[in-house]
Amino acid sequence: MARISRHLTCVVSTVAALGMAGTAMAQPLNFRIEVAEHSMPPLHSYAFGELGDWYFFFGGISGQGLHDLTQGAKPGTVPPSFPVNVFSEEIIAFNHETGETLTSGIDHLPTDTRLALFQTNSASVQIDDTLHIHGGYGPTADGTDWMTRATVTSVDLPALLAAMQLSNPAPSSAFTTASSPESQVAGGIIVKMGDMGRKYALIGGSNFIGDYAGNTLFLNIYSESAQIFDADVSVVAPYKTLSGSTLHRRDMNALPMTYPDGKSGTKTGFAIAGGVFQNGFFIWRTPLYYADGDVDVTDAFLFEQRMNQYEAGALSFYSESDDENRQVLLGGISDSRWENDMFVSDVLVPWVSDITQIRVQGGMYLDETVIGGTMPLPTTNAHTPIVENIPTYPNGQINLDAMPANEVMVARIPGGLRASEPAGTPLTFASGEVYEVYVTYGVRGDVNRDGTVNGADLADLLAAWGSNATVPDLVFDGVINGSDLATLLALWGNNTPG
Q1: CATH of domain 446-498
Q2: How far apart are the first and last CA of the chain?
Q3: What 3 state SS string does 163-201 have?
Q4: Furthest-apart CA pair in the chain: how many Å?
Q5: pTM of model > 0.90
Q6: Which residues of 429-467 are buried (b: 16+ CB within 10 A; e: fewer)?
Q7: Model pLDDT for residues 345-398, shown as the tens digit of each residue
Q8: Which fold has domain 29-445?
Q9: Domain boundaries, the chain
Q10: What is the CB neighbour count within 10 angstroms for residue 488?
Q11: Are 206 and 221 in contact (CB under 8 A)?
């Protein structure tokens, strides 16, 4: 069922888990976040693509942190929330292995493409080597007002990289910009779904018209929808639209999920965690979920999410053996804070560094947990690309059953909107640091997942000798050999998760 891939790395450090009320976790997840050796130009709220070791960034904000929250002021009394000079006017290609950075301006591109790339809070999805950028909020062509783009721009990443590596401007031929009324949103998010990841949903967002600070006529029209696309048919026109007042959300976390199909099998879909705003300026606490083929989204109204409702670093895990999804949210902005081993509501909507997990089993929400590890700094408005050779399903979920019995780097968080500290009103800024996300699933060295490293694990490792099986590959180099044996023996008797 899984598309299994490999990654060469050997890491050994971790942090113990901190539990919360709810069903006991047989195999806990523990996280460790490191700052990568190489940094990129500071940027947040960007569109993102990747090709080999190269990360690509389009649009976004480079010149400020969180936008001005003052709205409804009299004309001329406050600066714009998004001044024209804070938008990134460059396409950035960043090699996360070498630190090499390539840039290209966009002024030479056709007007419709240039405007589609001169924006913030667009939604993007990559199908094969083509990136599709939906919507986004930015200045008008004359720079006197602001609007939300009603376009989809498709980018040929290999052609773009080839030109940039020759120090040539980004070629116009690498871009195709088309009208898409359904894509006229900012603050929406895209989640891949079934059919080998070629179906995807553009969820939520709103159509901002005017200056968000209120200096000009400002309208904020929520889409209240999820648009389902099939990339093999059209990335401009959705084939299905889900709508309703519970989808009155933007800037949320939405992740791929796997659900029972009622026929002893599974089907893919998505879950929406949090988002803003309901009833004025209240954060959503009720998740929504959808499985491919359902008539509409379902409101998990019996479950209350307390942490990390605003767009954060996010990863989705699935265990077929346990039929369990785990949504992991890596810090961000919360409706509550974690204090004295409990959730505490906070009207300041604080920035937090806590890593939280929401577990869903058989379509049922089980619990929300603060788990091991914290973010170096609270971070939002960044993508979380999975490391190339981590075992994943086609919809982008990490395959827990195939994770090695050791700590491994699973993802990176390049740049983003960061806060100087966990607090209600901290200093915020666009970051160029890249965070590396390391995960330990259960007990290190515990090949058979029974909680203790002993002779049973040794027997399983020896039975897999010379193969490329994932779980006993403790050093994650693609083959079971003496290095894995030495690691297991060094961990002999270990029964502590993390």
Answers
A1: 1.10.1330.10
A2: 27
A3: HHHCCCCCCHHHEEEEECHHHCCECCEEEECCCCCCEEE
A4: 74
A5: yes
A6: bbbbbbbbbbbbbbbbbbbbbeeebbeebbebbeebeee
A7: 999 999 999 999 999 998 899 999 999 999 999 999 999 999 999 999 999 999
A8: Neuraminidase (2.120.10)
A9: 29-445, 446-498
A10: 25
A11: yes
